[in-house]
Amino acid sequence: MQLPQGKKIFFASDFHLGIPDKTSSLLRERRICQWLDSIRDEAEKIYLVGDLFDVWFEYKNVVPKGYTRFLGKLAEMADAGIAIEIFTGNHDLWMRNYFPEELNIPVHYGPITFEAGGKKFFVAHGDGLGPGDHKYKFLKRVMSSPFAQWLYRRVHPDTGVGIANYFSRRGAKHQGAHDGDFKGEDREWLVIFAKEYLQREHIDYFIFGHRHLAMTLPLGNSWYINLGDWISLNTYGEFDGTAFHLKTFDSHE
């Protein structure tokens, strides 16, 4: 990918729309839409790297209620020719055809790599990568299976989404807390994953969400980047064709 003059690639993750309540989520949704408006003239491509919703489950003819402003903004920008791609996260892994068919936005269910401006990128939400967290990895395999999704769709949407909301809303982030402090390079699973990956293949930028930490970490001549979140940090990534920058959006609300 060669970026035209004045164009950039943008990255953001962990909006967690829907929590902790309708009022707070709506304020966050409006802030995200303001950010999207602020970058639209510069955006060559936008990657939204998972956990956009705190719960998202698609039935054949039903999707979760709400998020009208956000979905409408994505549709508006996609219709204007801005390339947008999204990733599933651990909270919204049950995406299917709605985004590609209704919004013309591709969905990635795992990591991708690409090159832009002579730099190589590895992008993933980050859940289930690296060592450890074996219980979640097993649960993700089960929940991602076509049979599990088929079985869950036999449950009425009011019940199914209600159950998902109940389990999803348990956790510190619902009180506005981030996902803990940085534990050190030898204890952060995504950092360990990136270091092991570099033994096989060079990557200039590893870009993850999931941890709710806004940070950049040099790994030799590569970089580990976590995009933070929009519950308390309002952070996003920007690649201008030469270098990557982690920034904070100020909506002046």
Largest sheet: 6 strands, mixed
Outline type: globular
Strand order of the largest sheet: 4-3-2-1-10-11
CATH superfamily: Metallo-dependent phosphatases
CATH topology, anyone? Purple Acid Phosphatase, chain A, domain 2
Rg, nearest Å: 18 Å
Strand content: 15-25%
Overall pLDDT level: 87
Distance from N terminus to C terminus (CA atoms, Å) equals 35 Å
SSE-based structural type: alpha/beta
CATH architecture: 4-Layer Sandwich
Helical coverage, percent range: 25-40%
| Parts with pLDDT < 50 across at least 5 consecutive residues | none
Task: Please specify the SSE layout and strand pairing.
Layout: E1 8-12, H1 22-39, E2 43-49, H2 68-79, E3 83-87, H3 98-103, E4 107-108, E5 112-116, E6 119-124, H4 134-144, H5 146-152, H6 157-168, H7 189-198, E7 205-208, E8 214-219, E9 222-227, E10 235-239, E11 244-248
Parallel strand pairs: 1-2, 2-3, 3-4, 6-7, 7-9
Antiparallel strand pairs: 1-10, 5-6, 8-9, 10-11
